[in-house]
Amino acid sequence: MRQETKTITYYKFEELTEVAKQKAIDSLYSINLEHEWWDSIYADAQTIGCKILEFDTDRGNCCKMQLDYETSVIEAILKNHGEACETYKIAKEYQSKILDSDGNIDADIASEFKKELEEEYLAILRRELEHLMSEDAITESIICNEYEFNENGELL
After folding, report:
1. Alpha-carbon gap, residue 68 to 136, rounded angstroms
2. I want to staple 94 with a disulfide (CB 3.0 to 4.6 A). Which of 79, 113, 119, 152 is the partner?
3. Are 63 and 119 in contact, with CB atoms under 8 Å apart?
């Protein structure tokens, strides 16, 4: 019978060499995507009376939404989103155009408004995804979660 004792040295991310850090980052590229990362964007859409039904930031390149009454969505955006937001600018643009001369919603204008809003929410989703997959965001998650590695940057 033979017994052997093995000593393992644990390294925090900050203690790794640059090559080992890069290996750690590369191996954990999806760390920030292991949950429903889009939840806060969906919640934001709900606060203005929209429901994101589906989205595809890859090949499909689309975002499909269901809107409550268009004028109430415009009002909610103007109330809850800041003037620098693209959604605010879109709502401001359509605020005076959405109703026809009889005070009814113009279906063509409403369709254009919805399409622009869907495009903007797709852009928001894309930016969030790009941020979460960035080296800075991955590094921040590694450090915050206090992951430990071997000297080669492999997660222990």
Report:
1. 37
2. 113
3. yes
Angle at 114 between CA 70 and CA 98, to 5 degrees: 45
Which residues have C-beta within 8 Å of that of residue 54, sequence separation ≥ 6?
62, 63, 64
Domain locations in the chain as residue ranges: 1-29+137-156, 35-132
Alpha-carbon torsion angle 125, 129, 131, 136, nearest 10: 160
Contact of 57 with 122, CB cutoff 8 Å: yes
- 148 secondary structure, DSSP code: E
Per-residue pLDDT of the chain (156 residues; tens, 9 = 90+): 889 998 899 999 999 999 999 999 999 999 999 899 999 999 999 999 999 999 998 877 899 999 988 889 999 999 999 999 999 999 999 999 999 888 889 999 999 999 999 999 999 999 999 999 999 999 999 999 999 999 999 999
Classify 36 in phi/psi space as left (phi over 0), alpha (psi -120 to 50) or beta: beta
Residue 100, amino acid: D
